[in-house]
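@channel anyone free to eyeball this complex?
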Amino acid sequence: MALSTESIDAMKKAAARYPQKRSAILPALTIAYRQIGYLYDDLYIEVADAIGVSPNEVASAATFYTMFPKQKVGKYLIQVCMNISCGLMGAESLKEYLLKVLNIKEGEITEDGLFTVVSVECLGSCTTAPMMQVNQTFYENLNREKVDKILNDLREKG
Amino acid sequence: MDKIKLKIDGREIQTEKGKTVLEAALENGIDIPVFCYHPCLKSIGACRICLVEIASPRGDQIVPWPKLAVSCATAATEGMEVQTHSEKVVKARQGVLEFILANHPLDCPTCDKGGECPLQDTTFKYGLDFSRFEERKRRFITDENSTFDDLQIGPEVIRNQNRCIHCYRCTRLVQERFFEQDLGHYQRGAFTEILPPPGGEIRNLYSGNVVEYCPVGALTNRDWRYKVRVWKTEEIPTICRYCSDGCNLHVSVFRNKIYRIQANTNWSIDEGLPCDIGRYGYQFAHHDDRLTRPMIRKDDELVECSWNEALTVIKNKIDQTVKSLGSSGVACLVGESLSNEDYYTIGRFFRSVIGTNSIDHRIYRKKKLSFGEDVVKRELCWNKLDIADLEKADQFFILGSDLHAENPITALRVLKAKRFSDARIMLLNPRPTHLNRAADEEHIYSAYSEVFLLQGLVRLIVEKKMYDPDKANIKDDEAKAFLKETADFDFKTVSEKTGIAPVDLETIARSLCEAENTIFISGENVRIHYQRDPILISLYNLAKLTGNLNGDASGILMLGGESNSKGCYLFGMRPDRLPYDKPFEQAEELKSSWGEIATDKPGYDTIDILQKINDEKIECGFLLGLDAADHYPDSEYINNTLSKLDFMVVADLFLTDTARLADVVLPISSHFESDGTFVNWEGVLQKFSKSIKNIGESMPLWEIFSKLSTMFDADFNFKTADDIFRHFAPMLGQESVSRMAAIPKDGLRSEKKIDYPDLGLMAVKYRKPSHEDLPLTALSGNGDHHFSRNFSTRCESLNNFLADPYIAINDKLAEDMTISEGDLIKLENSSGKIVAKALIWQNLPEDVVFVPDNFIEVKVSMIRSKDNDIDKVKMVKM
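replying in thread with the prediction:
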């Protein structure tokens, strides 16, 4: 069992809020994601058991949403917005810069296990382009200096 | 139903309110192409190919809609004007097709769907002859070394995701209609994949339908693919030979060989969604085990001989027996999946030529029925409802029936009622059954406590006055008398005996009283129960009490049985009834065509026949299309008995256990090799047609007995099945149908359905069953994807789902005895023993084991004894 008892309890509690159990699939997946950091096949079965739906429904929903990473990622998942506004403001070169300073390819994990960089579609922060999201936090109006600082701060935090 | 009028392509059309534009058009023969629409499913408007141009009235003007609409998801309304093939529509469809084809590999030459592909046909009709899409098409690579991207996703289903156009018919069928979760869509957008859940495969009982209804070649069938091109095959209509639902099917034949079976939609029965057993269950027809020549016993060995030799021996032996013992020295047992034409000819041969009435089909019974036989037999077994009526019910009370495995298509209607009108399903069984995937309540009662359960519920309702006295038509003194008579069925005792908690009993009783229309369904577990009659009478009580006896969508159904169990009974395969269920008193009419028949006294039933064989009063026995040595619930007794016969004739497709004991073995043809008719459980008579030539020298039974009749100077002169049909057609009571060809496409429904009489509340007695003093009760039934013996286990495709016999045991019991799944275990009692692999079922009661009775290697009859009502066993780990 990969899921902790707290996670399972939280999922059950979430499931109790809805008249239909399958409505709790996304809340439950979010709980699983917060605990494990990414989703994978066997985890769908555990989630399904916890809220009493079929693994098919859980896996269908999970694979539909790209926001859930399906492979192991670094402690900090850096999602760089590549959509039109950010793109015009230099998202491409910003991403290249990130990959260069971290010495990884897109989707890979740095040796220290801290970072993974992926490109994503619009995160709804077009007025502050270019931007990126690190785990749950937005970093906006980026340039190389800002990126260096953010990475250093995160490294210090460990 | 409210009618509305609209114009489609300038034609005035009338349709029912609530129908979609597409349905209105299709009903009236106006063709609109579809991919994602299927009449069994809710519309989702995913593929957009059914676009039409619509204008509807506003004030006194007809106003065109601003854009094209999908006809499958637009309701038809009064005064609407629809264009299905205008220039705008055709151009739009071309556009839709261009988008669909952008990612479609167009590998038609190597695709198995070619020739019957809706996408191919629609492209042929509407598609452009060029594509503006120059980019690389998406590809789902399953094997780097292969240019084909096939992936086996179930025992019989192979997927090629490149071809998928995302109509979701497959996943909708599986999830909406079958209530299964073994197929889903994964990922998103153009990269959506059809897949079973992680670690699983698609193996539900209806899985073949996803292949048939895939509008492209994305899902293909393992068995059929690449063997023959579809335009070379001939499609011949047939009826399924397995369960008593009577699905209509199409056989695809090429050069005298069956290659596959597909649905032949009959909306009133199967809705075009047959189960896999019917779909893949044809393979026995070409099996190497088929008998091809008659065989005769010489020096204690069966050797092949000519038909003439075999029939002469039979003729001589019959003469000899009749001379020494009289005609009562001859008896006949028949199987339940022969055709009506067979039964009619068999009946005529034995009754008029030989003069014996000892004909029976009820081989599954150990003992005679005890009480109220007439009421039960005449009234309760006559199912009043039709399959389609099930849709209208609000509640199902399913008792002692593994409906999913015994009548898969009836089960599908129950599920339809659940899906589309939210009907409640209550399951009451001595073991878990697969219908529990959709049940609102499932109760597992202690095995053989049905009488307590039912009478307990009746008593509870009467005692607490939960019933509506007007609906139930019960007077107070009648209720009082009933309570007095059933004093030992009090709440506490019933709960103890059945193992169902008092609060649950009360819930069941309440929901029975509250629902408007409840249908009571009962099946195999009750059919072979030692107290079948008291159970049926209690069901009658319960239906009467809750006002569900004679409604349009309520009543009692006694299901189970085989493809022609009903025909077998209707066409006189009982010692006391003549064809079309006529009593002996009404024999005059028959005598005019049959000649003299013995109607002074009924013949012997199965139990008496076996007894008389032991008493040496019957010397000549016929077993026709019946593996009695395996079906009869006491293998030792039946083997000993049958070997006492002086002369035994077995007619079957295979050399069964019974055939091995015979003096003469006659090869009979399967229903694919002859015309004929079956009657399903509703009483609908349906026709099947000859699709292949007889295998070897085999003949249908009617032909054998017609030939035999000429040797007795009583030439029946039946040259074709239709000759026989013409003989009994007048008995069917429908003047227009005098030839087989006149049977309507969706079957001949008997219009006369008698209401159940009001017999008041009848108290029944519980009789303690006799059994050995052993810890476990052995129950049996159909294993996954199998039905009956000898046939389904000779079909490779069905064996791909389940090939080996098993013994299912409870998990706790397994733990106590340190048995893990797959270990060999032995069930044993004084009758015999069986050995098979263990399978662990978590919610099986601890004192019950389940053995599928489809497998020839593991005979459940070995652990059964006719002297015991219940088969108790002990279990040993090997």
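from a first look: Chain A touches chain B through 13 residues (CB under 8 Å).
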